[in-house]
Amino acid sequence: MSETFILRTQDLTKEFKGFVAVRSVNLQVRGGEIHALIGPNGAGKTTCFNLLTHFLTPTAGRIFFKGRDITGASPAAIARMGLVRSFQISAVFPHLSVLENVRIALQRKRGASYDFWRSERVLEAHDPRARELIEAVGLAEYADAIAVELPYGRKRALEIATTLALEPEMMLLDEPTAGMTHEDVERISALIKRVAANRTVLMVEHNLSVVEHLSDRITVLARGEVIAEGDYVAVSRHPDVIQAYLGTAHA
Amino acid sequence: MANAQSAMVGTRAARADLRPQWIAFGLMLAFFLVAPATGLYAVFLMKVMCFALFACAFNLLIGYGGLLSFGHAMFFGLASYASAHAAKVWGVTPELAILAGTAAATFLGVLVGLLAIRRQGIYFAMITLALAQMIYFFCVQAPFTGGEDGIQAVPRGRLFGLIDLSNVWAMYATVMVVFFGGFLLIFRVIHSPFGQVLKAIRENEQRAISLGYDTDRYKLLAFVLSAGLSGLAGATKALVFQLASLTDVHWTMSGEVVLMTLVGGLGTVFGPVVGAFVIVAMANYLAQLGAWVTVVQGAIFVICVLTFRRGIIGELGHWLRKPL
Ligand SMILES: Nc1ncnc2c1ncn2[C@@H]1O[C@H](COP(=O)(O)OP(=O)(O)OP(=O)(O)O)[C@@H](O)[C@H]1O
Ligand SMILES: [Mg+2]
Could you give the maximum distance between any two Cα atoms of chain B, in Å? Predict the structure, then answer.
């Protein structure tokens, strides 16, 4: 129980037909922190997320969450243990309303999801909590809008509200601010900061000012390997990191 | 009551407006009550209701679960054999015969579902087709199905041991109760907490998994419900026609239910009923055309795909801007 790291990997490796996308990664995330995973395109960040949540099966290595080995657990079971991910491409239920999107998550948490003989009106019991969450991410006036019609930044906000509905101990966010306008970026990073107050966040992020502003700790990945780790100042001065970023910028 | 009332105020806009669907339901009920008096044959109408229930059950799976089964005849057909066998050989009352057929299809649904549900897209369709072919050959070979002859002269018996179903109106009323009961159950499933999860899975399965849903289990439950209701339709049909035959388990029957659903409107509540009516009417009234019925059906299918993809009810609902 004296585990300081809520999430820990041991020599995590993923090969795609001979191509090693993630190589012997030992990731350690402290409980309660915002931990950033950064690196150039194709570094293996999303693959790491897919491995952690078992959307992909590792070729080798183990994953521990809250001290338990979750390497073989199903993706849904991992989510139910409190490790919930978002996706690089925004993942909402497009033809459900904003309220219904959030309710889907609340419904899982609170049961009754197999009840095919009851009226969906029983789900209205979740409405007050759903509206609270929607308001918390600044979508109050969109509660009855259909998700697909929201602008991109708002979709990401909805995704976060839906994830928060599960009250996960740990959230994995894959590029939460990608493709957003400047104001949206500010709103989302403020939101992440706020929701991270009582949970752990591991996020992939390309916007370095967001990374600098939010993260307690940073792991840098390049070509599937960890090349540096530490706080923002330490990492940004690391020669390998500078090399990796410049290397791809000139490629 | 007062509680429900106050809960409604805040959520009116959030919940889908079901009034158009209840109006359509009223019209449908009125139609089947009045139709026999307009000169339409009772047997024809009963056939329509049996196939309409079959198509609605199929539509529950594809239209709301996103799973295309190419082998639904196995549930319809097996149930019709089980029901005919129970009524004729075991001599049970008709409601028990229907129950036996439904139970057999549900049981088969669990087995097939467990094998098929993890497959995606076309692989799911292929494995259901393959398993349905196995059931077909089982029915050709098994002694109790009567081979090419099928099970003939099935007694309709007395409902609950009391009401003689050889009276056509007693039979008609029974079929109406079965059809409308099944229809309402499907309607409820669509608008249930489970139905909501099913919708979410169809919309974005990866996201549903990441929220902690074991999506395979939800799909399995949808599959079993669909199989059981298809069985209910087949079991009832066996009593109406006093016959269970290889036609009911043949792959063409699986194709026909796809056709009915597409013509009426995939993923609409009433489409499968209208589709079943159109296809059964064509088969009945164009019977003198012989083999040409298939050609006409094919032509209608092509027209459907080319001109009104949403199906009859789908287009109507789109035009009225109301989901039907
Ligand atoms: N399913 C797959 N099959 C084969 N190769 C894959 C697969 N998924 C990812 N890869 C490869 O693995 C490498 C890492 O990809 P990944 O998506 O993890 O990168 P990333 O760090 O998330 O990049 P980005 O910043 O562009 O999102 C890439 O070279 C990619 O082409
Ligand atoms: Mg990525």
Answer: 62
Of A80, A120, A121, the CB nearest to B195: A120
- Model-level pTM greater than 0.95? no
Nearest 5°: phi and psi at A172? -110, 120
B17's CB contacts (< 8 A; 6+ apart) are: B322
Digit-coded pLDDT (tens) for A88-126: 887 899 999 999 999 999 998 877 788 898 888 888 889
Burial A108-122 (b: 16+ CB within 10 A, else e): bbeebbebbeeebee
Residue A43 near ligand 1, beta carbon < 6 Å: yes
Nearest residue CA, atom 3 of ligand 1? A16
Burial code (b: 16+ CB inside 10 Å, e: under 16) for B90-113 equals eebbbbbbbbbbbbbbbbbbeebb
Size of interface A-B (CB pairs under 8 A): 123
Burial class, B68, CB count within 10 angstroms (exposed 0-12 / middle 13-18 / buried 19+): middle
Average pLDDT over residues A220-234: 91
**Regions of chain B with pLDDT less than 70:** 1-16
Q: Which two three-digit tokens encode residue A167?
A: 């009250």
Enumerate residues with CB within 5 Å of ligand 2 (an ion): A 46, 88
How many helices (H) does chain A have, and how many strands (E)?
A: 9, 11
Among A27, A47, A52, which is best to mutate for testing ligand 1, by the most ligand atoms less than 8 A from CB? Answer: A47
Task: Judge whether A191 and A203 are in contact, CB under 8 Å.
Answer: no
State the sign of the Cα–Cα–Cα–Cα dihedral B96, B97, B99, B100.
positive
Contact call for B210 and A53, based on CB within 8 A: yes
Q: Which residues of A touch B221 (CB under 8 A)?
A: 114, 116
Residue B218: its chain A contacts at CB < 8 A?
Answer: 113-114
Selection from B56, B40, B49 nearest residue B240 by Cα? B49
Phi–psi pair at A200, nearest 5 degrees: -100, 140
